[in-house]
Write a structure and sequence with these properties.
The protein is mainly α. Helices cover about 75% and strands about 0% of the residues.
């Protein structure tokens, strides 16, 4: 069950990142974050009411609140790092986020077997290569490296926090709702400050209503990914769940290949193969 839900997490996050990347070509990144998360919050609010999720309120919601504060910081740092580039360095470096939940799992006493350790090493290497690491070419700005490390730390922290936010399905809906509301509040505040400083919150033609379904998909896929990761982490080793969930860059690369006809570089194809091998080692270990 851990492998199944963690792989579902990778699929959902990979598609959400692909959709978000396409949308930020037309809409400011902050607006994409706020609108997509607001849609997700509305849907989750309805689910919480329908399932009487408020009865699960308790101290664990502080984990969800913290994840809601950290998430937008990580996402915006990542977008800024991608803008500074080069993406061939930024994207693979962001996969260091997996170190946080793995470290938490080890600190809690998890000790993966030899096959799982090999799987972790192979899968992480595969994810880095699937991002198409740029080993030569334009110099990398120190700010881009710093922002990417901040994003990686933030993404990894969200991994760890959301896994602790609930122990039941109805409680998970409530935790995800709290996280999303916090995301919208934090992102909305950042968007307000950005607009006050002269940035635009909307494209030149106004709000792109035709993109609303895509924005909804990005927000809901991100929510679903958080949910499946939480289930994966609760039903098996966090070290295994975190690595399998971190395979989402492979999904993003394959989506770009399938929908945008982008050609995979040799290093990316090799990375996808290694990621698959690592997945098999983890699943069978």
């Amino acid at each position: 069950m851990t492998a199944l839900f963690a792989l579902a997490t990778s699929l959902l996050w990979g598609l959400a990142d692909f959709g978000g990347g396409l949308l930020t070509r037309r809409i400011p990144a902050l607006t994409v974050v706020v609108v997509s998360q607001a849609i997700a919050a509305v849907v989750l609010g309805a689910i919480v009411i329908a399932t009487d999720g408020w009865s699960e309120a308790g101290p664990r919601l502080w984990f969800a609140f913290a994840a809601g504060l950290v998430g937008p910081v990580a996402m915006l740092s990542f977008y800024k790092a991608l803008a500074l580039g080069p993406m061939g360095v930024v994207s693979p470096l962001a996969t260091l986020s997996v170190a946080v939940p793995i470290g938490v799992g080890l600190a809690l006493g998890e000790r993966p077997g030899l096959a799982q350790v090999a799987g972790i090493a192979v899968a992480v290497a595969g994810v880095v290569l699937a991002g198409g690491p740029q080993l030569r070419g334009a110099p990398v700005q120190r700010q881009a490296i710093l922002l990417t490390l901040v994003a990686a730390l933030g993404f990894g922290t969200v991994f760890a926090l959301i896994a602790e936010a609930s122990t039941t399905i109805t409680g998970l809906f409530l935790a995800l709702f709290v996280q999303r509301v916090t995301n919208v509040a934090a992102g909305g505040a950042a968007l307000y400050v950005s607009v006050r400083r002269g940035a635009s919150a909307l494209p030149a033609g106004g709000f792109p209503w035709s993109d609303l379904p895509a924005l909804g998909f990005v927000g809901l896929a991100d929510v679903a990914a958080n949910g499946t990761y939480s289930v994966a982490a609760q039903h098996g080793p966090v070290t295994v769940a975190a690595v399998l969930a971190s395979l989402y860059p492979v999904v993003t690369a394959l989506a770009a290949r399938g929908f945008l006809r982008e050609r995979l570089r040799a290093v990316q194809a090799a990375g996808a193969g290694l990621a698959l091998l690592g997945t098999l080692l983890l699943a069978t270990g």
